[in-house]
């Protein structure tokens, strides 16, 4: 059964159907979208169940010739890393649909509701596609094409500065993507294998200088996408201006493509260059961790603040990827998932607050917990997950990253660990200002979470807590894939330091 | 012997080109273009003599035809714009700018 | 004197071109003899059918086997690339003609002074100049000739047959007559200037080689010594003439003015068909005639290509008129195409790859361009087309379909994946990297990114801005215009997803390279 | 080149004569100033002021000039064709018929569009 | 040098070999011939036309008034040389020069005779011949047009300007038809060189009537009569002779382009130029169509007729006869209207000419082409073209005629209406007391005190 193709086709068909719903019947469009996204989630789960961690590296593989002239294939398949990221997308989309129920019909929306949801489904298909692609060209196609629905979602449905933010987002990503295109072309031309299939291209480039140049092309694109310091400046704008749902997908999934790409393509295709550039990347990551955290502290806008925390978190992920140890790699992958959930939850809750008060600024709030205890409660849980409190999901991953890094690079690991402290400051201070203290006048009329909103946050909170205590299912899937990656990179293996290490060993 | 003709043709061509660049009246500009075409003809005929074949002379015929066609089209355009603007100065035609 | 052999002409091989010229001549006869009210209804089917017929003839030739020797005593080379270019030009002119059908674009009486009673009278009498159709046919015939000439003289004739009708067509816009006439005059003066350069270059190349036949010139490169200066002067001047036609910097100045002033359907034809034909000629001159000299011209062309891409992309940003912006975009695209021209390789296979990439690019760019200009024709206000960018604000609100299609075309120009433009660019870049022009590709990519900025700006304007209260109306498209937009969008999508068949075709056409 | 020497000689003779005539004229005749004599002649009425820089050519003569160019060019091609007609044979005839027919098409167009009407 | 071989038809190869002194003799000879020709021609024209009009013509100066032209010339030289104050001086002076020099040069390619022994040098009796001789003649005719236009333009006077333009338009229009009428000749002769065209007309076939063999002169006037007729008509137009003398049309344009050239030597130059055009046209008629210097049939039976200096006589006889025909026409026909003139040139002569050329080409091809040529398609195509051309032309003409009739009727109706109602704006004669008719006071040399 062509699972992955079906996974992509269902949202696309759904998007078309949504776009064709009669005008004025917004509710039908929303329900249809929700139904489609739930179907996708169900399909994803059905597929994930069949995934065998001990089986071939890539499973559910489909390969068809697409453009023989360029050696391009329609090649999809997942390993553990891709699988969990696809699952992340599939989980987040229904939640985002629910959360965005009224986003598009707010007064500053410029376009129809059904367009928003249609774009959302298109985006979902592309997110699945980008993780599933085993053909580098196909990956690039999804990588770039993904920008367009996101661009329209930010530009049409975002906040006051939306068009500026949307353009900035698009141009940054596009520019990065174009440099990657050069590298992709170079890879194809220099490898001379007349194929873009990822497995066949591993080890195709031996010349160190060439590797470095191509690595630079790929890495730049991923660094912009991730975003790594100093290529991050688009993210706060985009995330702050995007509607909450779009911001969740942007930070939760889209940006993961960057770190995913580093892990999958940069490392495996250009192992020597990766080792060569590792110090640089680690420096960037560490700077990003600290910088993101410090700047986050100074933010007055909730969404911007969350965006800066993400920059800090992406520093961790990149650090984990380039530490090139099994723990760090697995941790980074896990972090991608967890970060998706926790930051997603933060954005959504910030969105709920903003929907109530109409202002993203922290100073406009105060004493929320007294008025709306449930809202404040989930806010706190999400926040704590963001600062990696033990027992919540992020902790496991952050810890694995730090341990894994420390195995090899002690000093950066220690510096990065200070990021955890800073995280506590920015999260808790924000919580204190928003939820604690005397109740502000404007907050008085707030209603607590309604049924829909509860349905939105409940799964997220459940996942955050559940994965915090029992990440094994995910790690079981992730570990073999990370091992495989590191074997390709040919780094010497380190002994496992964590008990949760996959049972397969 | 033929070099002098080439020099002459180059001179004519340069005068024409310079005229196109510095003159402001559309008709004068246009006549300078025609001068350039005729410089080409001279060069063709000279080279034809140099090579001892007739190609260059035949080409000169074609160039004359083209020049004539250009005259017809060009004057039509210039006259039309002149009737509209009562001026044939290139500078006056300045609606299109970057 | 007695050595004259009666020449031969392969009428069968040249049939597509002859059909077009024949239709043009019949068109003139229709102008002469048919009563005024009948003319348009004769012209439209005549033009469309002959274009389609010529296209069918091209297909027959492709099926029946591509000729391997030049036709008409070596003057015209109907080889694989030429047939491909012919096909593309014919398709593009067919769709451009569909745009022309809408009378609203063309002046009722070109000779009438704008604002005069005569003009008003002509307007009231209705209709437009039906001479447009034969003129277009002549221009198309010229394009076919230009792209397939195997001889500099024929190339020059083709150039003029193509350009002269276009000079006139530029001045026929119904609205903004002054602008249109000015465009016409500028195009004419600069075009004539550049063709003089081409001609002088041709004279010098002839002086060097003793022949204007491309193959003989190439042969002479190896055998004739001592005339290097003559050759280099000729080469430079020829280059100026050709680069002018494709609008490469620093000879790009005419493009924005002309594109803006000309009636939009004519702009569509110029931006698509002329570019294709001009690149056909550029390739023939630089690859066939001067192929052995690539060490001399390549550095210069590098500079030109870089300058063209950068100038096109950067100046486009400052534009406030949609047609001017598309003109600068066309300049930038010419730069990308030049990368392909430069990407020659010592072996035939590499050259074939570059050639095929250029041909594919031209096809997809041409179709998208026609589509984009078709959209431009539909956004109108009281003064005709509303081309100022500020008038496009909020178009996405007013007419989501149209704006969406236009945005899609812009994304194709920007080279976003899943549009045909992406594969066009990709093919050219791939060929360039394979043939060692990677730095050019990087410049190309950077300018693509710059170019993306102004495409995106238009999208922002259309979708994210408030529509003006008195904004332009969207004309109800004529069936033809709708068909053009639909076709262009469909091609852009289909070739963006599944380009293989067309790539195969281009490969096949390019595989044998140019015959000499 | 020698072929043109006689023409040059004749040109010198004729030119000398013509220039001499023009140059001698002011000295052989009388001089009597009269304003009317020096006015442009307009059947005795006050002359119409002419614009600075010379008169302008009526436009309709342009069409004649253009037509002349077109046909003159046609003749350029007819002459060599006629001279080498015997060598070109049927091909020459067919091509020239095509050429003339093409020119006649344009001619018919001009005729129908009243380009050949004078008054 | 071997024995002088006379009666050899000169070919192109015989030219360009003369020593300079021979060349000068010839050039001066041609010049003198033309100057004398003008003097004689003017007298001859006036005399002949007078006789046709039943009067005497010039008869005071010299015997039979023979010196009349000389007297006229002297008179012109002694007239006041006016410089109207508006003219563009340089061009005004140069225009007559520009007109007259090419007129002389156009005559230079006229062949007067065969190879002769001139002061011991073997040389053709012709100033020069070129591979493109006829083209050269046409070119010189065209250059003269510059003189006409410049004369009209530099005068800065409406009449002159209009006259110059009209004249130029007329001359160039007829030049086309004239050039076309030569094409048939070149088709037959296969050359543009005048001397070779003359030789080509030498070999006539022989008409066999029973035992009698009458050699036919293969003059092109017989073979190509339509071409000749068209040429003659065009020659009148080109030389601006009555009935086509509109450039000077005294009745319409005062004096045409020469209005501002009062009767001084400049005027004389212009007149000379025009006269020379008539001479050239006549000489070309003789050369291209009437066998050139060759003796006509009965005389040509005499072996010596085409040798030595005799041919000059035959040439002159033919020349004078043709010139007389020109004068005869002048005496017989009225001047045509301008639109008629142009319509004749453009709508009749040119299409007729083209059709005729095609016909000649087809016939020639059928006659000379080898047997391999399938004649049917050629004939069919030719027939279609000819019939088509005639059909189109005929259709046009009727359409034009109908339109003109309608227009005439309309104008007549309008006049009718206006005539009946003088106040309607059309016909009241402008009041006579308009200041325009009086002008400023003048105090100058009165007329008639010259």
Automatic annotation (TrEMBL), chain A:
All copies of domain NADH:quinone oxidoreductase/Mrp antiporter transmembrane, residue ranges: 133-420
Nucleotide-binding keyword on record: no
Subcellular location: Endomembrane system; Membrane
Domain spans labelled NADH:ubiquinone oxidoreductase chain 4 N-terminal: 69-128
Keywords carried by this UniProt record: Membrane, NAD, Translocase, Transmembrane, Transmembrane helix
Pfam families (UniProt xref): Oxidored_q5_N (PF01059), Proton_antipo_M (PF00361)
TM segment ranges: 6-22, 34-52, 72-101, 113-131, 137-157, 169-191, 211-231, 238-257, 277-298, 305-324, 336-355, 375-397, 409-431, 452-470
Coiled coil: none
Bilayer topology annotation: Multi-pass membrane protein
Family according to the record: Belongs to the complex I subunit 4 family.
Name of protein: NADH-quinone oxidoreductase subunit M
Organism of provenance: Nonomuraea africana
From TrEMBL, chain B:
Function: NDH-1 shuttles electrons from NADH, via FMN and iron-sulfur (Fe-S) centers, to quinones in the respiratory chain. The immediate electron acceptor for the enzyme in this species is believed to be a menaquinone. Couples the redox reaction to proton translocation (for every two electrons transferred, four hydrogen ions are translocated across the cytoplasmic membrane), and thus conserves the redox energy in a proton gradient.
Membership in a protein family: Belongs to the complex I subunit 4L family.
Reactions catalysed, as given in the entry: a quinone + NADH + 5 H(+)(in) = a quinol + NAD(+) + 4 H(+)(out)
E.C. code: 7.1.1.-
Membrane topology: Multi-pass membrane protein
Organism: Nonomuraea africana
Keywords: Cell membrane, Membrane, NAD, Quinone, Translocase, Transmembrane, Transmembrane helix, Transport
Subunit note: NDH-1 is composed of 14 different subunits. Subunits NuoA, H, J, K, L, M, N constitute the membrane sector of the complex.
Transmembrane segments: 6-22, 27-47, 59-82
Pfam families reported in the protein's UniProt record: Oxidored_q2 (PF00420)
Alphabetical list of HAMAP family matching this protein: NDH1_NuoK
Catalytic EC class: translocase
Broad class of where this protein is predominantly found: membrane
Compartments it resides in: Cell membrane; Membrane
Protein name: NADH-quinone oxidoreductase subunit K
From TrEMBL, chain C:
NADH:quinone oxidoreductase/Mrp antiporter transmembrane domain segment(s): 149-450
Keyword Manganese listed: no
Domain of life: Bacteria
Keywords linked to the UniProt accession: Cell membrane, Membrane, NAD, Quinone, Translocase, Transmembrane, Transmembrane helix, Transport
Enzyme class: translocase
InterPro entries: NADH-Q_OxRdtase_suN/2, ND/Mrp_TM
Subcellular compartments: Cell membrane; Endomembrane system; Membrane
Reaction(s) the record says it catalyses: a quinone + NADH + 5 H(+)(in) = a quinol + NAD(+) + 4 H(+)(out)
Topology class, membrane: Multi-pass membrane protein
Spans traversing the lipid bilayer: 14-34, 83-101, 154-175, 187-209, 229-254, 266-287, 299-318, 325-346, 358-379, 400-420, 440-464, 476-498
EC number, UniProt record: 7.1.1.-
Listed Pfam families: Proton_antipo_M (PF00361)
Alphabetical list of NCBIfam families matching this protein: NDH_I_N, PRK05777.1-4
Known role: NDH-1 shuttles electrons from NADH, via FMN and iron-sulfur (Fe-S) centers, to quinones in the respiratory chain. The immediate electron acceptor for the enzyme in this species is believed to be a menaquinone. Couples the redox reaction to proton translocation (for every two electrons transferred, four hydrogen ions are translocated across the cytoplasmic membrane), and thus conserves the redox energy in a proton gradient.
Protein name: NADH-quinone oxidoreductase subunit N
Organism of origin: Nonomuraea africana
TrEMBL record, chain E:
Domain of life: Bacteria
Reaction catalysis annotation: a quinone + NADH + 5 H(+)(in) = a quinol + NAD(+) + 4 H(+)(out)
Localization (cell): Cell membrane; Membrane
Record field: transmembrane: 20-44, 90-110, 130-153, 174-198, 218-237, 275-296, 308-328, 348-366, 378-396
Topology in the lipid bilayer: Multi-pass membrane protein
EC number: 7.1.1.-
Keywords carried by this UniProt record: Cell membrane, Membrane, NAD, Quinone, Translocase, Transmembrane, Transmembrane helix, Ubiquinone
Keyword Kinase: no
Extent of Basic and acidic residues compositional bias: 435-450
InterPro entries (UniProt xref): NADH_UbQ_OxRdtase_su1/FPO, NADH_UbQ_OxRdtase_su1_CS
Record's keyword annotation contains Glycoprotein: no
Disordered: region residues: 422-450
NCBIfam families in the record: PRK06076.1-4
Oligomeric form and interacting partners: NDH-1 is composed of 14 different subunits. Subunits NuoA, H, J, K, L, M, N constitute the membrane sector of the complex.
Biological function: NDH-1 shuttles electrons from NADH, via FMN and iron-sulfur (Fe-S) centers, to quinones in the respiratory chain. The immediate electron acceptor for the enzyme in this species is believed to be ubiquinone. Couples the redox reaction to proton translocation (for every two electrons transferred, four hydrogen ions are translocated across the cytoplasmic membrane), and thus conserves the redox energy in a proton gradient. This subunit may bind ubiquinone.
Protein family (similarity comment): Belongs to the complex I subunit 1 family.
Protein known as: NADH-quinone oxidoreductase subunit H
Species of provenance: Nonomuraea africana
Annotated gene: nuoH
């Amino acid at each position: 059964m062509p699972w992955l193709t079906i996974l992509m086709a269902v949202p696309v068909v759904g998007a078309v159907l949504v776009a064709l719903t009669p005008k004025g019947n917004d509710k039908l469009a929303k329900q249809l979208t929700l139904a489609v996204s739930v179907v996708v989630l169900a399909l994803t789960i059905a597929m994930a169940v069949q995934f065998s961690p001990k089986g071939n590296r890539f499973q559910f593989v489909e390969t068809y010739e697409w453009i023989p002239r360029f050696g391009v294939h329609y090649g999809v398949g997942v390993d553990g890393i891709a699988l969990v990221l696809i699952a992340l997308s599939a989980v987040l989309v229904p939640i985002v649909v629910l959360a965005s129920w009224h986003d598009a019909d707010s007064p500053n929306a410029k376009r129809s509701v059904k367009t928003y949801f249609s774009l959302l489904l298109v985006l979902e298909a592309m997110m699945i596609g980008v993780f599933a692609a085993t053909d580098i060209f196909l990956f690039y196609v999804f990588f770039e094409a993904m920008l367009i629905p996101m661009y329209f979602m930010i530009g049409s449905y975002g906040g006051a500065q939306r068009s500026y933010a949307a353009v900035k987002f698009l141009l940054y990503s596009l520019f990065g993507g174009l440099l990657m295109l050069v590298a992709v072309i170079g890879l194809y031309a220099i490898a001379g294998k007349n194929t873009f299939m990822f497995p066949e291209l591993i080890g195709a480039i031996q010349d160190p200088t060439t590797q470095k140049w191509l690595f630079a092309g790929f890495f730049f694109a991923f660094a912009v996408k991730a975003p790594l310091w100093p290529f991050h400046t688009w993210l706060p704008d985009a995330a702050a201006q995007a509607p909450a749902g779009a911001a969740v997908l942007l930070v939760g999934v889209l940006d993961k493509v960057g770190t995913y790409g580093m892990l999958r393509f940069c490392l495996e295709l250009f192992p020597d260059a990766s080792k060569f550039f590792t110090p640089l990347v680690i420096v960037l990551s560490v700077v990003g961790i600290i910088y993101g955290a410090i700047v986050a502290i100074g933010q007055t806008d909730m969404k911007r603040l969350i965006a800066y925390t993400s920059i800090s978190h992406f520093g961790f992920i990149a650090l984990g990827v380039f530490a090139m140890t099994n723990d760090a790699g697995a941790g980074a992958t896990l972090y991608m998932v967890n970060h998706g959930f926790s930051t997603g939850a933060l954005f959504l809750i910030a969105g709920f607050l903003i929907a109530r008060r109409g202002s993203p600024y922290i100073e406009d709030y105060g004493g929320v917990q007294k008025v709306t205890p449930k809202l404040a409660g989930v806010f706190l849980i999400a926040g704590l997950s963001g600062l990696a409190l033990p027992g919540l999901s992020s902790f496991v991953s952050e810890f694995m990253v730090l341990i894994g890094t420390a195995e090899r690079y002690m000093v950066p690991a220690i510096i990065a660990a200070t990021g955890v402290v800073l995280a506590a400051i920015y999260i808790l201070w924000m919580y204190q200002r928003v939820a604690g203290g005397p109740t502000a006048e404007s907050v008085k009329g707030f209603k607590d979470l309604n049924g829909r909103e509860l349905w939105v946050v409940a799964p997220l909170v459940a996942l955050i807590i559940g994965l915090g205590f029992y990440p094994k299912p995910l790690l079981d899937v992730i570990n073999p894939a990370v091992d495989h990656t590191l074997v390709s990179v040919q780094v010497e293996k380190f002994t496992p330091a964590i008990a949760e290490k996959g049972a397969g060993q | 012997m033929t070099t002098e003709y080439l020099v002459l043709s180059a001179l004519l061509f340069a005068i024409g080109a310079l005229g196109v660049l510095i003159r402001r009246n559309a008709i004068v500009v246009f006549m300078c273009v025609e001068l350039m075409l005729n410089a080409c003809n001279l060069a063709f005929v000279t080279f034809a003599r140099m090579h001892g074949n007739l190609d260059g002379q035949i080409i000169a015929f074609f160039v004359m035809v083209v020049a004539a066609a250009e005259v017809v089209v060009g004057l039509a355009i210039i006259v039309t714009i002149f009737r509209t603007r009562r001026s044939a100065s290139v500078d006056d035609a300045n609606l299109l700018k970057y | 004197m007695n050595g004259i052999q009666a020449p031969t002409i392969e009428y069968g091989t040249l049939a597509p071109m002859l059909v077009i010229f024949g239709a043009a001549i019949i068109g003139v006869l229709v102008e002469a003899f048919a009563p005024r009210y009948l003319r348009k209804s004769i012209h439209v089917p005549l033009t469309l059918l002959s274009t389609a017929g010529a296209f069918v003839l091209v297909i027959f030739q492709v099926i029946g086997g591509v000729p391997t020797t030049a036709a008409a005593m070596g003057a015209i080379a109907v080889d694989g690339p030429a047939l491909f270019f012919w096909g593309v030009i014919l398709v593009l002119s067919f769709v451009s003609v569909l745009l022309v059908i809408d009378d609203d674009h063309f002046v009722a009486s070109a000779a009438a002074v704008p604002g005069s009673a005569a003009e008003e009278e002509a307007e009231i009498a209705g209709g437009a100049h039906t001479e447009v159709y034969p003129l277009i046919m002549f221009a198309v015939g010229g394009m076919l000739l230009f792209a397939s000439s195997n001889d500099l003289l024929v190339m020059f004739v083709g150039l003029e047959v193509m350009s002269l009708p276009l000079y006139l067509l530029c001045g026929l816009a119904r609205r903004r007559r002054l602008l249109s006439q000015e465009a016409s005059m500028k195009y004419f003066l600069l075009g004539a200037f550049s063709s003089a350069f081409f001609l002088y270059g041709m004279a010098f190349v002839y002086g060097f080689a003793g022949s204007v036949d491309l193959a003989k010139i190439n042969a002479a490169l190896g055998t004739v010594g001592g005339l290097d200066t003559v050759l280099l002067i000729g080469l430079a001047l020829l280059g100026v003439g050709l680069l002018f036609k494709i609008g490469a910097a620093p000879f790009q100045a005419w493009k924005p003015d002309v594109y803006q002033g000309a009636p939009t359907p004519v702009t569509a034809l110029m931006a698509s068909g002329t570019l294709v034909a001009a690149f056909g000629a550029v390739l023939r001159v630089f690859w066939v005639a001067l192929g052995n000299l690539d060490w001399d011209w390549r550095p210069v062309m590098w500079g030109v290509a870089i300058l063209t891409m950068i100038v096109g992309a950067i100046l486009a940003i400052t534009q406030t008129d949609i047609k001017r912006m598309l003109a600068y975009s066309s300049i930038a695209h010419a730069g990308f195409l030049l990368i392909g021209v430069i990407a020659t390789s010592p072996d035939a296979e590499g050259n074939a790859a570059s050639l095929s990439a250029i041909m594919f690019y031209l096809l997809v760019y041409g179709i998208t361009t026609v589509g984009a200009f078709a959209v431009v024709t539909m956004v109108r206000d009281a003064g005709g087309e509303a081309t100022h960018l500020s008038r496009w604000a909020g178009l996405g609100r007013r007419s989501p379909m149209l704006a969406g299609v236009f945005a899609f075309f812009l994304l194709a120009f920007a080279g976003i994946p899943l549009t045909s433009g992406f594969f066009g660019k990709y093919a050219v870049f791939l060929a360039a990297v394979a043939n060692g022009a990677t730095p050019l590709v990087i410049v190309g990519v950077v300018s693509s990114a710059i170019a993306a900025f102004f495409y995106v700006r238009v999208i922002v304007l259309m979708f994210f801005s408030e529509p003006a209260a008195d904004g332009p109306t969207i004309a109800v498209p004529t069936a033809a215009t709708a068909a053009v937009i639909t076709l262009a969008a469909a091609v852009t999508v289909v070739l963006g997803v599944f380009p293989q068949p067309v790539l195969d075709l281009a490969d096949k056409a390019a595989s044998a390279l140019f015959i000499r | 080149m020698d072929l043109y020497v006689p023409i040059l000689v004749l040109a010198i003779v004729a030119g000398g004569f013509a220039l001499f005539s023009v140059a001698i004229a002011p000295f052989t005749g009388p001089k009597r100033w009269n304003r009317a004599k020096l006015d442009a002649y307009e059947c005795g009425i006050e002359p119409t002021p002419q614009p600075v820089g010379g008169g302008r050519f009526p436009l309709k003569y342009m069409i004649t000039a253009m037509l002349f160019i077109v046909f003159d060019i046609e003749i350029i091609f007819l002459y060599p064709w006629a001279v080498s007609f015997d060598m070109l044979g049927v091909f020459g005839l067919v091509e020239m018929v095509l050429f003339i027919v093409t020119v006649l098409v344009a001619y018919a167009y001009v005729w129908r569009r009243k380009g050949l009407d004078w008054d | 040098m071997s024995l002088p071989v006379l009666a050899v038809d000169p070919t192109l190869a015989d030219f360009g070999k003369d020593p300079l002194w021979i060349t000068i003799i010839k050039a001066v000879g041609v010049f003198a011939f033309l100057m004398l020709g003008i003097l004689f021609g003017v007298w001859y024209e006036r005399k002949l036309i007078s006789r046709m009009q039943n009067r005497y013509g010039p008869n005071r100066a010299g015997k039979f008034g023979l010196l009349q032209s000389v007297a006229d010339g002297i008179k012109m030289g002694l007239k006041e040389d006016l410089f109207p104050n508006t003219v563009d001086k340089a061009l005004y002076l140069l225009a007559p020069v520009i007109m007259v020099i090419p007129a002389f040069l156009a005559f230079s390619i006229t062949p007067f005779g065969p190879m002769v022994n001139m002061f011991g040098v073997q040389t053709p009796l012709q100033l020069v011949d070129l591979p493109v001789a006829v083209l050269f003649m046409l070119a010189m005719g065209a250059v003269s047009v510059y003189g006409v236009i410049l004369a009209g333009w530099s005068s800065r006077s409406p009449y002159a300007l209009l006259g110059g333009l009209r004249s130029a338009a007329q001359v160039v229009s007829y030049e086309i038809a004239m050039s076309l009428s030569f094409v048939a000749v070149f088709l037959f002769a296969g050359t543009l060189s005048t001397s070779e065209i003359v030789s080509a007309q030498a070999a006539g076939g022989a008409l066999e009537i029973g035992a009698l063999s009458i050699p036919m002169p293969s003059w092109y006037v017989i073979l190509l009569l339509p071409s000749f007729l068209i040429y003659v008509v065009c020659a009148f137009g080109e030389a601006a002779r009555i009935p086509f003398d509109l450039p000077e049309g005294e009745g319409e344009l005062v004096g045409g382009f020469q209005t501002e050239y009062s009767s001084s030597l400049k005027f004389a130059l212009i007149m000379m130029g025009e006269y020379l055009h008539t001479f050239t046209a006549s000489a070309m008629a003789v050369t291209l169509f009437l066998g050139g210097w060759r003796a006509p049939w009965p005389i040509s039976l005499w072996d010596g007729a085409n040798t030595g200096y005799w041919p000059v006589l035959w040439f002159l006889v033919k020349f004078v006869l043709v010139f007389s025909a020109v004068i005869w026409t002048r005496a017989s026909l009225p001047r045509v209207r301008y639109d008629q003139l142009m319509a004749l040139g453009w709508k009749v002569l040119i299409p007729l000419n083209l059709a005729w050329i095609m016909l000649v080409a087809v016939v020639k091809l059928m006659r000379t082409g080898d047997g391999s040529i399938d004649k049917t398609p050629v004939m069919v195509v030719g027939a279609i073209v000819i019939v088509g051309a005639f059909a189109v032309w005929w259709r046009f003409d009727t359409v034009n005629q109908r339109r003109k009739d309608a227009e005439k009727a309309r104008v007549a109706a309008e006049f009718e209406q206006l005539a009946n109602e003088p106040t309607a704006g059309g016909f009241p004669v402008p009041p006579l007391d308009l200041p325009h008719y009086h002008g400023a006071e003048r105090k100058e040399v009165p007329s008639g005190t010259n």
